[in-house]
Amino acid sequence: MFLLPSNAYLSWWLQVGADGSKSNVRQVAGIKTTGWSYPQSAIICTVEHTTANDCAWQRFLPSGPIALLPIGDNFSNIVWTMSPEEASRHKSMSSEDFVMSVNRALDFGYGPHPSSSSLDHYMEKLFSGSGHTAASTKECFEVPPRAIGLISERMAFPLSLMHSHDYVSKGLALVGDAAHTVHPLAGQGVNLGFGDAAALAKVISEGVSVGADIGDLSLLSRYENDRKAANVAMAAVLDGFQKMYSVDFGPLNVLRAAAFHGAQYISPLKRNIISYAMGDKKSPLFS
């Protein structure tokens, strides 16, 4: 129970910690975490286009991926992973120079546009008769819409992986970044948070329907048991991607390219990966 400034008392059955990676709720509750830092930072901001952007774009660059994420009308959010030194430089440059750097990174700045390779022709020949080739393999490379202006402050923050030892205690539940943070390279942090919120809401609803105390640990543990395994698995996948793209080694580069081409050309596998990323499936493999 809390005493408010108005001298009224506020009581509750359940406190939900949804206050980010540096969660005060988690810290006050004494919940421990495990994790590590990446040698990267991310720049986030909002840019404007001349036309509406209705597609999410991502390009993997030597220092990390840049993502262009539509938020409605002619605006998109930028999430750009780079070294801490680069992040500091991009944060301090003029708005005009930053917009030019964004357009360069999304278009031609780090080499020519992707084109069909011998690996593409081999994969197409291998799977052309199976009936499982994804339609997107016929699509040509498209340049993302150009940014024409910066309309928000640029924020830079260090990247890390963090996972709470516990999601719940008596009268308390953690969701989203308060419970776990992952590398932003696949944009999965928000999906994991949505999954947490949906799972917790379901458990609360079930508890209310039978008259249970929604802060009871045995009830809240059902939420933790449902979400922890899925979140740990996704964190491990993203950490693996981060490490895989941090190494420039010939044989590994070939294997990496072959794996991604396989996911592109095998339609059932591609659908499973998409469903897994959306939280609809427990595994990215066939099931």
TrEMBL record:
Name of the protein: FAD-binding domain-containing protein
Keywords annotated in UniProt: FAD, Flavoprotein, Monooxygenase, Oxidoreductase
Domain FAD-binding: residue ranges: 152-232
NCBIfam families, A to Z: Ubi-OHases (TIGR01988)
A single GO BP: xanthophyll biosynthetic process
InterPro entries tied to this protein: FAD-bd (IPR002938), FAD/NAD-bd_sf (IPR036188), Ubi_Hdrlase_CS (IPR018168), UbiH/COQ6 (IPR010971), UbiH/COQ6_monooxygenase (IPR051205)
Organism lineage: Eukaryota, Viridiplantae, Streptophyta, Embryophyta, Tracheophyta
A Pfam family per the record: FAD_binding_3
Organism in which the protein naturally occurs: Aegilops tauschii subsp. strangulata
Cofactor or coenzyme needed: FAD
Gene Ontology molecular function: any one: monooxygenase activity
Gene Ontology cellular-component annotations: mitochondrion
Family: Belongs to the UbiH/COQ6 family.
